[in-house]
Amino acid sequence: NQKFSKATLDGKPLDEIIKDKKVSIKFPGKSLKKARHRKIGDLKPCDVPEDAEALYEATCFAADNNALEIRSLQRSGPSNIPCVQKARQAFLDQPMFINRAIWDKNLFDGDMNTFFIARYEGAALRIDFGEVINIDELVIKIQDIQARNNNRSLNSFAEENKAEISKELKTWEKIGSWSDLGYTAIARLYEEKFARYVRIEGAPARIAEIEGFFNGEKLDRSQWRASNLFFPYGMKETVSAYSTSFQLDELAKGSYLAIAINGKHGDEGAYAAIRVDGKLVGSPDRSVSFPSNTWEYKNVSMKENYTYYVPLTEDMVGKKIDAVVLISEKNVENLKPEVWITAYPNPFESKELVLYE
Questions:
Q1: Whole-prediction pTM value?
Q2: In sequence order, what are the residues at sequence separation of 6 or more whose Cβ sits closer than 8 angstroms to the Cβ of residue 342?
Q3: How far is CA 74 from CA 64, 104, 223, 263, in A?
Q4: Does an H or E element contain 140, and which?
Q5: Which residues pair with 276 in a beta bridge?
Q6: For the segment 107-130, what is each residue's pLDDT rounded down to a tens digit?
């Protein structure tokens, strides 16, 4: 028999275990009453909901159109390893990556030499301030005044363009339109406005900076995000819908919903979101990936079997949750949407037992 001189559990002495004594070890957390990975139910056909546009916008604003490499870095999280940090920074700093203009961060970095360029004609520019703020002036900077205007199609506003603001995605207020071409476009709201979301149809494909002001003071942009490849709702208007409702009595750490839309629904023809006691919650991730401004080659596009992922939080427990699927393609049949709950990583608790010779 192997003999040990001492033992520790999570760094604390536990010599009883090497003296052939029974030891009771308690793990933190609560045991789940239901499987962490399970099917919740099927979504059934329903009337197109009155808030269909708001649900669509919730997912458009929750998601992004950044390069897949940026999404990968964000999923990986920060690293404390110096060589990994340097390798990541070297990739992000290389001129070719910067010139591709594939990261919304470029709109909020104070640098007129970095851009965010939309690859789809007709897509809307969306800006999320991260919270409801006071704003009375929105500024879009297209290019430096010293730059040569050698690409009118990238730098121009559409002849018919419009900008709208909203606090909660349900009601939108038009704040004006811009001239066809210029170095800097300014939308003055003329009175105090509370807003979180901005959507602009007909914005230039290439934009250098987006700024906001209130009472002449420049607003903090550290939480601002933008997307530029999702189409206006009018181009993806809902023609049919599916839904189901449920409550969660418990929640494992890292839980999220997977709303699987089984069947053919057309390219970008199906979107999903949820309501939590009426509050709209969009899906920030999807399989296949949301459209991206790609680094090397475009990500896969498909006409069937999308799955939308919606993170869950403790404050959702015990509340009514509606999972909704919106279909914008006509004559879609035999769809079988369903909603699952799962968690990643596995929500296990652990303790470290060390035995010393």
A1: 0.91
A2: 36, 37, 38, 255, 256, 258
A3: 12, 13, 15, 30
A4: strand 125-141
A5: 279, 321
A6: 999 999 999 999 999 999 999 999
